[in-house]
Amino acid sequence: MSVDESKRIIAEKGVKHLAFIMDGNGRWAKKRGLSRSLGHKAGVEAMRRILDYMFELGVEHVTVYAFSTENWKRSKDEVEALMKLFSLQMRSAKKDLDEHRSRLVFLGDKSAFSPSMRKRMIELEEYSKDNPRTVNIAMNYGARAEILRAVNALIEKGEGNVTEEKFSSMLYTSLSPDPDMIIRTAGEKRLSNYLLWQAAYSELYFTDTLWPDMQNSDVDAALEEFARRVRRFGAVV
Ligand code: FPP
Fold first, then answer.
1. Cα(53)–Cα(46) distance, rounded to whole angstroms?
2. Which of 89, 148, 173, 205 gives the lowest tally of CB atoms within 10 Å of its CB?
3. Residue 132 sits in which domain range?
4. Is 171 within the bounds of a domain?
5. Is the pLDDT at 236 greater than 90, yes or no?
6. Is the predicted pLDDT of residue 231 greater than 90, yes or no?
7. Does residue 150 lie in a domain region?
8. Distance, CA 23 to ligand 1 centroid (Å)?
9. Tell me, what's the pLDDT at 160?
10. How far is CA 106 from the centre of its chain?
11. How many whole angstroms from 193 Cα to the centroid of ligand 1?
12. Does some domain include residue 147?
C-alpha cells in the first residue's frame, strides 16, 4: 500500500471523515521505562504526523480523542502534564492551522479548563473558522454527555418533532459528516463513550499498534481494510 493507493481509496470510496482513538501512550512509555507524561509527549508527535498525512491524503474532516470526561480521574501529575502539553500545542497552533487550511473545533465542555486555556480554545476556533478542512479535537468530551446536552437544548427550545438531521445539528460535531471509519490503537476493542450517535454506520478498525508508534503505513492498512468492506447502511445491495 502506498500514499497513491490510499488517495485512490479516499477519492473512490468518498471518504470524508476519519476519527481516531489515540490509545496506548502509557504502555508505550512503560515499555521504555519512561514516565507516562513522556508517552503523551510522543503521542502529540504521532498526532501531528498522522494529521499531516490526513491532509496529504485529502481527508476533509479528522477527529481525535485527546481527553475524555473520565481522564480527570488520572493522577494529578498526569492531568497536569496533559494540560501543559495541550497549552504548549495551542501556542503554536495558528501557524499549523494556516498551513493546513484547517478549521479547529473542540468537542466537549470547555468550562472545565482553566480560564486562559478556555480563552485560547475559543480564540483558535474563531481564528480558523473560515478554513475549508476540519480538525475536531475531543477534549473533556463524552458522547453520552454530548447527547444529553443536545436533548436538554431541544427541550429548552420546546422542539416537538425532532429529526435525525436536527439532532445531529445539535451535537458538537455539527460541522462534520458522520465518520466513515473510527480507528482505535493499542488493542482495545471498544468505543469508550466516543461519538456514539455519529458512529451508527462507521466502520470500526482496531490495531495493536500503540499510538506513539502509529505511522502512515498503519493508516494505509486501515484504508485498505476500509476498501474491502461493503458498506450497506442497513440496506441490501
Ligand atoms: C490514551 O493513552 C491517550 C490519552 C488519554 C491522551 C491522548 C492525548 C494525546 C495523544 C495528546 C493530544 C494533544 C493535543 C494537543 C490535542 P493512555 O494514556 O490511556 O495509554 P495506556 O492505555 O497505554 O495507559
1. 11
2. 148
3. 3-142+179-227
4. no
5. no
6. no
7. no
8. 6
9. 84
10. 9
11. 15
12. no
